[in-house]
Amino acid sequence: MTPRRPSFIPACCAVALLGALLFPSCKKEGSLGASKVLDPVYFSEVTINDSFWSDRLQKHKSTTLPVCIDQIENQTGRIRNFENAALGEGEHSGIFFDDSDVYKALEGMAYSLVGSPDPALEAKCDEWIAKFAAAQQPDGYINTFYTLTGLQDRWTDMDKHEMYCAGHLGEAAVAYYKATGKRTLLDVAIKMADHMMSVFGPGKRDWVPGHEEIELSLVKLYEVTGERKYLDFASWLLEERGHGHGSHGDGRVWKPIYYQDEVPVGEATDISGHAVRAMYLYCGMSDVASYTANTAYREALDRLWDDVVLRNMYITGGIGQSSSNEGFTTDYSLPNKSAYCETCASVGLILWNWRMNRMTGEGKYIDVLERSLYNAALSGISLQGDRFFYVNPLESDGDHHRQNWYGCACCPSQICRFLPSVGSFIYGKSEDGLWVNLYAGSSAEILPSVTITQQTLYPWDGHIEITLRTPKTLKKALHLRIPSWCPSFSITDKNGKSLPYVMKDGYAVVDGRWNDGDGVILDLDMAPTVVFADPRVKEDEGLCAVQRGPVIYCMEGIDNEGTYDDATIGDDTTFKATYNSDELGGIVRIEASGRGPGPLSLIPYYAWDNRAPTPMKVFLTYSGTKAPTL
Ligand code: FUB
Ligand code: ZN
Fold this sequence. Notes:
Blueprint: E1 8-10, H1 14-22, E2 39-40, E3 46-48, H2 53-75, H3 78-87, H4 99-113, H5 119-135, H6 144-149, H7 162-180, H8 184-199, H9 214-225, H10 228-239, H11 275-292, H12 295-311, H13 343-360, H14 364-377, E4 395-396, H15 410-418, E5 427-430, E6 433-436, E7 442-447, E8 450-456, E9 463-469, E10 474-481, E11 489-493, E12 502-504, E13 507-514, E14 519-524, E15 529-533, E16 543-548, E17 551-556, E18 568-569, E19 574-580, E20 587-593, E21 600-604, E22 616-617, E23 620-622
Parallel strand pairs: 6-10, 18-23
Antiparallel strand pairs: 1-15, 2-5, 3-7, 4-22, 5-6, 7-8, 8-9, 9-14, 10-13, 11-14, 12-13, 15-16, 16-17, 16-23, 17-21, 17-22, 19-20, 20-21
Helix pairs in contact: 2-4, 3-5, 4-5, 4-7, 4-15, 7-8, 7-9, 9-10, 9-11, 10-11, 11-12, 11-13, 13-14
């Protein structure tokens, strides 16, 4: 293993960093084997009322969903594939895994119904679901590609995504069942799962899903049905990896590294291959580990997390450096212009880190989740909610733009299901504690009859007011995540009196007996900061980036005509941060002034390419003296 070090480091805390370098390798005796520290508080229990998120969620409903539905029904043949499969005639159009986009869009539609009834949208879901059910074969198999091109060939090529599509079917089914109580789609998913288990499993055929996804979906099926056999099948599928079972079935050599099929998953040490596949795999492993106390998985996940986050992650929380494998290359190789950083991979990283946090109660996972959320993932959708990035580079000559759809539409459909579930990442709960992971204007019934509310202008302002409503005195520790980007913070009661706390695993833990209306005020220092890549990242030698709170900034040519090419940050550079509600959906813009050409004007990375085509860069020339060395 190469030495551990994050691939970027904040300039302002090079000393504190030395401590930070040690934490990823710390293993706490006793934590292995524990199933879960935190329970989730799903978005269905959370109401978001927030200056940053509410408008995005509204646009998801008013724009993103209609765009996806139109693409799926009218602009492409995705729904027609189901209609044809039901009739058993006609052609399959598009890519062999296009069914997955329909399921992912339906998952997003289901989430959007939660807490916000919409009879027309629900009717659209029911219409699609009837088409899925009609396309299901009597033995439970469902996949429009094989149904229309030759059912005799099904289950012959492990890379043909049959289980990937089945996994997205399962996630959509659980989502719709939870949103509406309607079982039709759940029954379709159960029949498909039972079909797969009749063909594969101990004493039956071996199978390595070429694209992971089914594993985490089976765990959801286990959670909603209570049937252990689905969890066991997920475990079995994970254990199939690394034993030479994987193949294309037509004689072509399977590249195990691309598929995370080189070694048994519990022995994995290094991140490799396709980024989205890897993230879904680690989600599945985390789920299984949290239910089965599988210590080998837990240890492997720790190793893999170090390798992804400390050596192969961009400052934006994007992962997967290369388009050639849509995935990982070599440690510390992080090119900016050719960065792949697929939107789906960022969402996968978020989903994995959410699970790791629940399993361990450690804030470092939410630090990564937050980084990816506000930067690499959010850049995947335009401010209007109608255009999508598949690839999210950190530098552009002005020729990279969002599109309204893609032939391979995994990223638009991913964003469609991801955005409305964002409320799930805000809170957590444990036997003796309430946990605030993300800061966003919101309230949640975190325990029966107990509501937690946040008022804040985060991510633009670090002032957060948290209030508890409880019918009787509540004895719970309040865990407030202190983001790793934050150099200083204060915690007071509502009268401004400092509250005692202890730091534990990235959280300030305020022990308390809370009465109705009690609360705390958290203030996080959000001064703009110069950040550097690890000196081993050759592509960022002599460069730096600017971060404020969780938001990474970039420079667009359109704002910096005449200065873009020579823009420099130095020791004397000062930053002025100004909120403007009318600009780019409401942003804090940063003006950087110093001896070089300027002032330079920076905007949040996620907001780039929302005006005229223009060059963009995250890393800028650094002329100062504070860059870290090896
Ligand atoms: O193969 C299904 C999806 O398409 C992958 O997750 C993406 O990387 C894209 O290749
Ligand atoms: Zn994608």
